[in-house]
Amino acid sequence: KQWYQRRVAITVGPNNPTLPDIRANAYQLCGVLEMSTPPASALPLGQRKVGLRPSAEEDSNTALVTTSTDTSGAFCFKVSPGKYILQALVGTQEVRDGLRLAPLKVDVTVTSGPVDSIQFSQSLATLHGTVVCIGGDCAGVRVHLTSGAGVGHLAEVESGARRVSAILPGEYKVTVDYPAWCWKETEHTVTVEDVLETPSFEQSGYIMKLEVSHAAELNFTVAGDNENTDVGTFSLEKGTNRFCLKKPGVYNLVPYACH
């Protein structure tokens, strides 16, 4: 039923054989709410609420009227002709966990017939950025995203670019994963609501691991076309030591002193 009439008593007789025009005094205002990737805290369709209030300034203090969606997300109000504002209601915890329903509100005018074209849908976000690798080859590098709620996403790096789409808006920890290399920064914390380009990850060298039985000092040189280039002298402690070598090549390690 998409329209409604007031119930009236009509007398029909020889002196009044014609029925008056029957006019609707209210109509259905309907729509649908869609969620593709709701967070775990989100109420399911069938339990969600949509609110409605008149849009006129003199009615701004009118209490919000709510109705529930059915299990397919459909909802309806019975309204008189006029101007209204509709909102899909979202809880505080749902917002904290990344649920966004768009648009925030819908202005609609009901005149002489039902309205069934209102639509609310879930907004998702996209994170993208670059990875800069020495020599330009980033094969095997991965970038991990972890939300505040602990939900993880993985971005494969192709041609130095990384992109993760259809994620919940909110705060994410973004980390680069390639243990054999060292990086200027390995982690960024970002907040995304729509589309966001995150800071790049830039490789700063190659990890070398050395294990020694005693504390020692080693002199590092790297082989060049004509002669070796001195890299520096490093102090090693007993056990496993990690170094970041700035460029690829053949390195010569010469003990300088043992302790």
Structure notes:
This protein is mostly beta strands and 259 residues long. It has one helix and 22 strands. The chain has one helix at 92-96; strands at 3-4, 26-34, 49-54, 65-68, 74-79, 82-88, 101-102, 106-110, 115-122, 125-132, 142-147, 152-156, 161-167, 170-177, 181-183, 187-192, 195-197, 201-212, 216-222, 229-236, 239-245, 251-258. The strands form five sheets. Strands 10, 13, 15, 17, 18 and 21 form a six-stranded mixed beta sheet that branches. It is rod-shaped, with a radius of gyration of 33 Å. The N and C termini lie far apart (92 Å). The mean pLDDT is 88.
Q: What is the element layout, followed by pairings?
A:
Layout: E1 3-4, E2 26-34, E3 49-54, E4 65-68, E5 74-79, E6 82-88, H1 92-96, E7 101-102, E8 106-110, E9 115-122, E10 125-132, E11 142-147, E12 152-156, E13 161-167, E14 170-177, E15 181-183, E16 187-192, E17 195-197, E18 201-212, E19 216-222, E20 229-236, E21 239-245, E22 251-258
Parallel strand pairs: 2-9, 10-17, 10-18
Antiparallel strand pairs: 1-2, 2-5, 3-4, 3-6, 6-8, 7-9, 10-13, 11-12, 11-14, 14-16, 15-18, 18-21, 19-20, 19-22
Keywords:
259 residues, mainly beta, 5-stranded mixed beta sheet, 1 helix, 22 strands
